[in-house]
Amino acid sequence: MTARGAGAISSIQLAGAGAEDILKKIFIRLCQPSAALHAMEGRGFGGQGAKTNFKVGDILHGNIFDGGALVDEVVIGCEAKDFFSINCHGNPIIVENILELLKKHDVRIAEAREILEYMGEQKHGDNVIAIEAQIGQSQAATIYGAKIIGHQTKMGLLQAANWWLENLDTLELDDIKEGAEQILNDSKIADLFIRDVKIVIAGPPNTGKSTLFNRLCGRDKAIVTDIAGTTRDWLSAKVRLKRIMAEFFDTAGLDQMLSGQNSIDAESQGRAVELIENADLVLYVVDCTNPAIVMAGLTESLKKLVVFNKCDLGKDFPTGGLCISAKTGEGIDRLMTAIEKTLGVLYFDIKKTVCFTDRQKGILKQVASASTKQRIKELIQELLKGSVAV
Ligand SMILES: Nc1nc2c(ncn2[C@@H]2O[C@H](COP(=O)(O)OP(=O)(O)O)[C@@H](O)[C@H]2O)c(=O)[nH]1
Ligand SMILES: [Mg+2]
Question: Which residue's C-alpha comes closest to atom 26 of ligand 1?
């Protein structure tokens, strides 16, 4: 359950039929006199004679043995029947040794998601939205994202779905469909709180994209020179804005001339275009001393923000534009706010009803285009009780 790597402690979760029997074979509590004696003598117990009782709610301090050999001193939490957390020392070698020992007892290593799902089922039964929420919250990129998801399990999506089911006879078909449409629209913005938001810095060469990238991520990660075409491969850095977690990408300047040049430039142009196509927002950086805005490679459907850079050079700036100086930092705060405004997250009410998994979105899309109430009933039942998919 803890990340790979060294730390003070690590946590291994052991779950499923037979979990208790396995622990009885490898664990001895330290407060049991006979066990303490065994431990002191380093004898272990070879799977014999362990009297440990694992009561749900107990927290047990003791040792794990592999036959006669002490593996680690651990604290075991008995979370539910056949469901334990083994808290061991954080050295990855110790974790590895415990996992190897468990494997000898026919334990299978599960994906973290699988365990979360299992925990979710233990806790929430067949309330699929609540299980999905538990998993989603643990992976949300921001605290707002976690709150948005949490809201769907008490009110929000759960309440809307139940209300539709209960009032299906009196509700108009079109009203339900419209409601589903609204939820889907709000979900697009909610999604920006839940995952990292991809923001691509693009524009012609030499306008200060890499300088802006460095300014935003607070260090000199990208190479800045006054030679056009310095940035070839893209770099990215995560930056926490007011309400979202942004991942900024510095790209090669978009230059029609370069696409046809040598293969490295052609490739770097191709990568820049690909990143732009998958962006949530494009910051299009223009040199305000030379503000010819040719938005090469930017389709209409992309969200974009034109940024006039190098305003420290004191020329007449284009009015209405967002003027900044990547070099001095002027206007960067305004840019950050403008980014969140453009994405629609700045004033988004985190108590809105939204979907937060592809499964939920898929079902609501079908609700929005359903032609009978019977079909809607089936879909909502599926939303509430289907099988977990995150
Ligand atoms: N005066 C001034 N120069 C800047 C500013 N931003 C970038 N530059 C300069 O413009 C040149 C190109 O910058 P760079 O970040 O490499 O541009 P890129 O090709 O768009 O990545 C470098 O000489 C930078 O020092 C700015 O805000 N003001
Ligand atoms: Mg650059």
Answer: 310
